[in-house]
Design goal:
Blueprint lengths: L5 E4 L6 H11 L4 E3 L2 E3 L2 E2 L1 H6 L7 E4 L2 E4 L1 H11 L12 H26 L11 H22 L12 H15 L8 H11 L2 H12 L3 H5 L11 H11 L8
Parallel strand pairs: 1-2
Antiparallel strand pairs: 1-5, 3-4, 5-6
Helix pairs in contact: 1-3, 1-6, 1-8, 3-4, 4-5, 4-6, 6-7, 7-10
The protein binds glutathione (GSH).
Length: 247
């Protein structure tokens, strides 16, 4: 059966990176679309596809699909042989995977957003440091829940899945944004292992390279920075007191 054409609206280091990684791991051809058409201005085509103006938005044969957790679930089902998610078809088992995806997007991601974009939560910029610190505290608390899940295994489900890729995005933002990850060695180790996957290194480099200059320069788009694998790896190692690993 022929697969649909897949196009992803993606922006730099935004959470759409988790979808980009799943697409890369699928081995299926896809293309990346920019949500912008001018500095800091989102294109009418993008806003028509996703009126919230947020990435990710995946065009599936031209039809938009939004929400990271729904897109990852869709890709897991579209490419069962690639084991992007360990779905079995058994209703409760698969619902637990869906629950984990929603925990990532609704239970963890909003705290990353609060740290990176405090202006969405507080109009008084004098309070932003405090808003960020509250976000860091909550992000740490939520990642601790993942830490407890990783006690006996490197990956969330024993084999790499797109949720480990999604967690990588959370942990990368945590370490980039000064969250103290010293007590979360397994989360950081999980992220380091994801970073050793060629697909992730490839998408990080591509994500950085495909940003239009206008998006890079806009102060409105903080999701465009710090995507080089090497410094991210160094930050992970430093966070848990591990000597720097070879590139
Ligand atoms: N609930 C959405 C949230 C998506 C989201 O927050 N996207 C952010 C980047 S991580 C975004 O596009 N922010 C730009 C904006 O809100 O204008 C999901 O899980 O996909």
């Amino acid at each position: 059966m022929s697969q649909p054409e897949l196009k992803l609206y993606h922006l730099g280091a935004a959470c759409s990176l988790a979808v980009l990684l799943a697409l890369e791991e699928s081995g299926h051809p896809y293309s990346i679309l920019s949500p912008f058409f001018a500095a800091g201005r989102k294109s009418p085509e993008f806003l028509a596809a996703n009126p919230t103006g947020q990435v990710p938005c995946l065009l599936v044969g031209g039809r938009p699909l939004t929400e990271t957790s729904a897109i990852l679930l869709f890709l897991g089902r579209l490419f069962p042989d690639r084991r992007l998610l360990p779905l079995s078809g058994e209703a409760f088992h698969d619902a637990r995977i869906e629950s984990d995806l929603i925990f990532c997007s609704a239970g963890i991601q909003p705290w990353v957003r609060q740290i990176v974009m405090p202006r969405y939560f507080m109009d008084d910029s004098a309070q932003w440091d405090r808003v960020r610190q509250l976000g860091r505290n909550k992000l740490l608390e939520r990642l601790s829940i993942i830490e407890a899940r990783l006690t006996t295994k490197a990956w969330l489900y024993g084999e790499w899945s797109a949720i480990d890729g999604y967690l990588f995005w959370m942990t990368m933002n945590a370490v980039n944004e000064g969250v103290e990850l010293g007590g979360l060695e397994r989360c950081v180790d999980n992220a380091i292992r994801s970073l050793s996957r060629p697909a992730l290194r490839a998408v990080m480099q591509r994500a950085e390279a495909t940003q239009p200059a206008s998006a890079r320069q806009s102060s409105d788009t903080p999701w465009t920075t710090r995507l080089s694998p090497r410094p991210v790896l160094d930050r992970f190692c430093a966070a848990i007191g591990r000597p720097p690993l070879p590139a």
